[in-house]
Specification:
- The structure is a single chain.
- This protein is an alpha+beta fold.
- Helix content is about 35%, strand content about 25%.
- Strands 1, 2, 3, 4, 6, 11, 12, 13 and 15 form a 9-stranded antiparallel β-sheet that branches. The protein has a 6-stranded antiparallel β-sheet with strand order 5-14-7-8-9-10, with no helix packed on it.
- Helix 2 packs antiparallel against helix 3 and helix 5 runs antiparallel to helix 6.
- The longest helix has about 40 residues.
Length: about 425
């Protein structure tokens, strides 16, 4: 079988001119290998997958030939670093130290550069087999929500008890003052002139005009019989006037029960710099590129979904976090990437203050969740993937939890911009993948 690239020399297969610098050769190699990497053709036909595999091998061969040729042409320059060998050696160090998750992440990075490097694939398969058992640690969300709800309920009951006690004491004070003899007010000026031994009974009448707050402590011995006489029918209606009906809805409005701080060890952190392993390419009306620590996806109006994807180093169960800034229509995360038309998207539209999560299966889209939320200029999106459950968070606040069996869980994920009526630019930074505790 003759391929269309067999007649191309090493420079032509990489798309560069002879005499290019090693930096240009390496950049061209990364661009070409990202276009024909086997992962990109996972949902393609068998013939397309085979073609991509042959071309990827030819691209690797051309890169190795030019790298050796550059080394032989300039013996005086320092020997170029063998990044693949360094990654492999780093993975071996992690394995020897028992850091198996870190070793798996390093081998995954090496596999993205060269899928056929030594026994990299066998080591990855062995390490992945060790982490196939689902995590059994329970998410602390329920217990934390229960604790906070109990605390709010306790405070509410305490407030209602205090308010009822104040109402009862006030009613008792009013009744006590009403039951006092009518001669008490006129005798108020006489106590200073009357000797204390003879006016012992009169002090209760003396302080009535000036010490109105003190009766709640004094009448406890003398008003013991009065609680039955205290107007329970009048105090019974008071609880409805207490703020219990109005304060009951307030606990759900407090963000603390649904706000969760990110946890779990960071397994992968994207480098959106000059040596980023994320693709840089463009097409008719769209482009994707990595520069200055950010990844940008641009699409003209009406283009639809434009995305770039990678493979998680720890399998399908993981936590993905990224900071997103969207101008135009929609932008966000692509989850469970089973193919170009089979994935789940979690996107935001800051202009309308909305989020949505939908599942794409061919030309059909199924809405899983949507809602309105206040969005800042830069918004942190995160998704916790565990089995068929997807927990969606915006700025560490849980906005929805969906359960779906289709498309099935997959280790591939990506970044996405969706241009409908408006041209859209989605910019992403600080992308990390955490292991679930």
């Amino acid at each position: 079988m003759n391929d269309d690239f067999e007649q191309l020399d090493d420079y032509a297969i990489l798309g560069i001119r002879p005499g290019a610098s090693f930096a240009d050769i390496k950049q061209a190699y990364l661009k070409q290998i990202s276009l024909y990497h086997p992962d990109r053709y996972a949902g393609a036909s068998a013939a397309e997958q085979e073609y991509a595999a042959r071309r990827a091998r030819r691209i690797n061969q051309a890169y190795q030939n030019l790298r050796r040729r550059r080394s032989s042409m300039a013996p005086a320059t320092p020997v170029q670093r063998d990044y693949q060998a360094e990654l492999y050696a780093q993975a071996q160090v992690h394995l020897a130290a028992g850091r198996r998750l870190q070793a798996l992440a390093t081998l995954r990075e090496l596999q993205r550069i060269n899928p056929w490097y030594r026994d990299c694939a066998a080591l990855i398969a062995e390490l992945e087999a060790e982490y196939q058992t689902p995590a059994t640690a329970a998410e602390p969300t329920i217990s934390r929500r229960t604790l906070l709800t109990a605390a709010v309920g306790g405070l509410t009951l305490t407030f209602l008890g205090w308010y009822g006690w104040r109402q009862l004491q006030g009613a008792m004070t009013v009744q006590e003052i009403d039951n006092r003899p009518p001669t008490a007010p006129p005798t108020a000026p006489t106590p200073p002139a009357v000797p204390s031994p003879t006016t012992a009974p009169t002090p209760p009448a003396v302080p009535s005009p000036t010490t109105a707050p003190t009766p709640p402590a004094a009448p406890s011995p003398t008003t013991a019989p009065t609680p039955p006489a205290a107007p329970s029918p009048t105090t019974a209606p008071t609880p409805p006037t207490a703020p219990s009906p109005t304060t009951a809805p307030t606990p759900p409005a407090a963000p603390s029960p649904t706000t969760i701080t990110a946890s779990g060890p960071i397994i992968y952190q994207a480098d959106f710099g000059p040596n980023s392993d994320w693709p840089t390419t463009s097409g008719n009306g769209w482009s994707v590129s990595a520069s200055n620590g950010a990844y940008r996806i641009q699409a003209n109006a009406g283009i639809g979904d434009i995305w770039a994807f990678r493979t998680s180093p720890i399998g399908a169960d993981m936590m993905i976090e990224v900071e997103a800034s969207v101008i135009g229509d929609w932008g966000g995360l692509m989850l469970r990437f089973n193919g170009p038309q089979r994935y789940v998207s979690f996107v935001i539209n800051p202009a309308s203050g909305q989020f949505r999560c939908d599942e794409r299966n061919g030309e059909q889209r199924t809405l899983l969740a949507e809602g309105a939320i206040i969005l800042a200029e830069r918004t942190r999106l995160s998704a916790r993937l565990e089995g068929q459950s997807i927990e969606l968070r915006i700025n560490d606040q849980v906005v929805s939890i969906v359960t779906s069996a289709t498309p099935p869980p997959d280790a591939r994920y990506g970044l996405l911009a969706r241009a409908g009526q408006n041209a859209t630019t989605a910019t992403f930074s600080n992308l990390v993948i955490r292991a679930l505790r």
